Amino acid sequence: MSVTLHTDLGDIKIELFCDRPRKTCENFLALCASGYYNGCLFHRNIQSFIVQTGDRSNSGKGGNSIWKKKFHDEIFDDLRHSKRGIVSMANSGPNTNESQFFFTYGGLPQLDGKYTVFGHVINGLEVLDELEKLPVNEKTFRPLREVAIQSVTIHANPIADLD
User: Fold this and answer.
1) Could you tell me the CA-to-CA distances from 56 to 68, 118, 163 in Å, in that order?
2) Which region among 5-9, 27-31, 59-63, 157-161 has the lowest average model confidence (pLDDT)?
3) Which value, in Å, is the radius of gyration of the alpha carbons in the chain?
4) What's the distance, CA 2 to chain centroid?
5) Are residues 34 and 48 in contact, defined by beta-carbon separation less than 8 angstroms?
6) DSSP sequence for 115-129
7) 123 - beta bridge partners?
8) pLDDT for the residue 163
9) Region 47-67: what's the mean pLDDT?
10) What is the per-residue pLDDT for 28?
11) CA distance 154 to 18
């Protein structure tokens, strides 16, 4: 199962781990299918750490799940922030997932057990390279140049076939 995020800097193809963080993948795929992520800016960009997106208000403080409420973390011991290109839900504490997510710029074991890992980049790591190079506001880590997700292509949706 994969999706491609078409961004201003190029395409990022993500393989999703739909067999285990199922609720997270259901939420992410439904938001992708609805066009929710179209126009979302990469609003937080910390070199050697993460780049974050998924807030339609583009403030970094918003976002909604498909259930219009926060949902529980789905933590698995073998799904780790082990390398560049891991895709994980952003949150504001335990069990506060909504729509925001991030890509890792490297292995970040300090995030394990705190954020739901639900995929990894299988094509487009060069786009992450370009994102990481963007100059940012030193206080907010917001890129000085706006870069957005233009659209999302879902290549297969096994969640729809499971019900």
Assistant:
1) 14, 20, 29
2) 157-161
3) 14
4) 13
5) no
6) S-EEEEEEE-HHHHH
7) 13
8) 47
9) 95
10) 98
11) 13
* Structure tokens, 108: 């970040």
Query: Are 145 and 133 spatial neighbours (Cβ–Cβ below 8 Å)?
Result: no
Which residue type does 80 have? R
Tokens (6 digits) for 116: 């739901």
Q: What is the 3-state secondary structure (H, E, C) of 12-81?
A: EEEEECCCCCHHHHHHHHHHHHHCCCCCCECCEEECCCEEEECCCCCCCCCCCCCCCCCECCCCCCCCCC
Locate tokens 């193809």: which residue?
Answer: 13
> For the chain, what percent of residues have pLDDT higher than 70?
95
Q: Does residue 159 have a pLDDT over 80?
A: no
Instruction: For residue 151, give every residue at least 6 positions away whose Cβ sits within 8 Å of its Cβ, in sequence order, or none.
Output: 6, 35, 38
Q: Which tokens belong to 24?
A: 């997270």
The per-residue pLDDT for range 29-47, each reduced to its tens digit, is: 999 999 999 999 999 999 9
Token pair for 33: 């299918």
Phi, psi of 91 (to 5 degrees): -150, 175
